[in-house]
Write a structure and sequence with these properties.
- It contains twelve helices and 14 strands.
- It is of the alpha/beta class.
- The strands form three sheets. The protein has a ten-stranded mixed sheet with strand order 2-1-3-12-11-4-5-10-8-9, with helices on both faces. Strands 6-7 form a two-stranded antiparallel sheet.
- 47% of the residues are buried.
- The structure holds nicotinamide-adenine-dinucleotide (NAD).
- Nicotinamide-adenine-dinucleotide (NAD) binds at residues 13, 17, 73-76, 89, 92, 260-261, 277, 280-286, 291-293, 296, 334.
């Protein structure tokens, strides 16, 4: 059956990095007979420039119809003065909410050769490969009541951390599914010693675990999880957690790797359909200079193949090609160290290196 990927290059370095990811897709598409077709649409600032809207109805309906979406990055100073509801970021938030992408996957992985880029000791992070699953559309960021009001003569600010059983169930299922595709260990992070919402969270996660007997489930309080992430991050395989806790833990985990140009991400709906994008933004400071590292986007493509299209062997091939390129000392400027055997390359040359590796040339 043929599959359709909508490609949204976006703004700034988005167009440059997506170009390399599409080259990689073309190679594995042919090698693995994946029967994937792509359609490209302007999105974010590029779409605003063309039509006055960061997300047009045409693009939205193409994204709805697609099997998956591959996004570069959006935004830039040019759009700071655009009306608030026309800014690129608004298009992205709307796309995420229209497609009900409630499950945010952020892997933190560190190729052994890049361990020096981390702020932790190399031996603690070399070979790190973990995944944080953050609930993206519920919890305290969306819960009510919320506000600031005057009580007894003084101002009081308040928010509500609220999760329904169904919301917990679907993110837990997502967590177990991801764990099944990895090393089958899932750590649910909560604050069940203090928060009732976390008590329910834990109860529902345990209930869902009955459907996944092969996955080893553990629980950890969020304060301990923060500590363990910087103490011994390699103990984790998959972490599943709520919106607020995931926001904080995933940024901390990202920084363990030290190189933003290497980090992919995904946001999935209840059926595993997803939008895949690098963690970084449109990097206006280096757009057009050839310095953008396309590997985060190429690794996002690999996640797309693994988690939405279930094409694990094509995904493995991409991951292995990237690992080999890094091992061979090929570096974009953001991950270049002082290694004597390093070759510093530009965006297109990094694409060339991955493609050559895939083709065995
Ligand atoms: P950024 O991630 O774009 O850049 C931060 C720093 O990292 C910059 O120095 C940049 O040069 C560097 N960098 C980022 N990606 C890189 C890559 N692939 N290779 C090499 N270096 C890289 O964050 P910012 O500067 O805070 O934001 C710039 C714009 O991007 C803003 O308009 C922001 O709103 C937008 N943004 C978009 C997304 C998204 O598309 N999902 C995410 C974050 C920020």
């Amino acid at each position: 059956m043929s599959k359709n990927i909508v490609v949204l290059p976006g703004d700034g370095i988005g167009t440059e990095i997506i170009e390399q990811a599409v080259r990689v897709l073309d190679v594995v598409n042919e090698q693995h007979n994946l029967n994937i077709s792509t359609q490209t649409f302007a999105f974010g600032g590029a779409s605003y420039d063309l039509s006055g809207e960061p997300l047009t109805e045409e693009t939205l309906s193409a994204c709805r119809a697609a099997d998956a979406i591959l996004l570069g990055s959006i935004g830039g100073p040019k759009y700071d003065k655009a009306p608030r509801d026309k800014r690129p970021e608004r298009g992205l938030l709307r796309l995420r909410s229209e497609l009900e992408l409630f499950s945010n996957l952020r892997p933190a992985m560190l190729f052994p050769e890049l361990a020096d880029a981390s702020s932790l000791k190399p031996e603690l992070v070399a070979g790190l490969d973990m995944m944080i699953l953050r609930e993206l559309t519920g919890g305290i960021y969306f819960g009510g009541p919320r506000g600031i009001e005057t009580r007894d003569g003084q101002q009081v600010g308040f928010n509500t951390m609220v999760y329904g059983e169904d919301e917990i169930r679907r993110i837990a299922q997502s967590g177990f599914e991801i764990a099944m595709q990895r090393n089958k260990r899932l750590c649910s992070v909560d604050k069940a010693n203090v928060l009732e919402v976390s008590e329910l969270w834990r109860e529902v996660v345990i209930d869902v675990s009955k459907d996944y007997p092969d996955v080893e489930l553990s629980h950890m309080y969020v304060d301990n999880a923060a500590m363990q992430l910087v103490r011994e991050p390699k103990q984790f395989d998959v972490i599943v957690t709520s919106n607020l806790f995931g926001d904080i833990l995933s940024d901390a985990a990202a920084m363990l790797t030290g190189s933003i140009g290497m980090l992919p991400s995904a946001s999935l709906d209840a059926n595993g359909k997803g939008m895949y994008e690098p963690v970084h933004g449109s990097a206006p400071d280096i757009a057009g200079t050839g310095k953008a590292n396309p590997l985060a986007t190429i690794l996002s493509l690999s996640m797309l193949l693994r988690y939405t299209l279930n094409e694990a062997s094509a995904a493995d091939q991409i991951d292995n090609a990237v690992a080999a390129v890094i091992k061979n000392g090929i570096r974009c400027a953001d991950i270049a160290g002082s290694g004597a055997n390093e070759t510093v390359v530009n965006t297109a040359q990094m694409g060339d290196a991955v493609v050559a590796q895939l083709q065995g040339t």
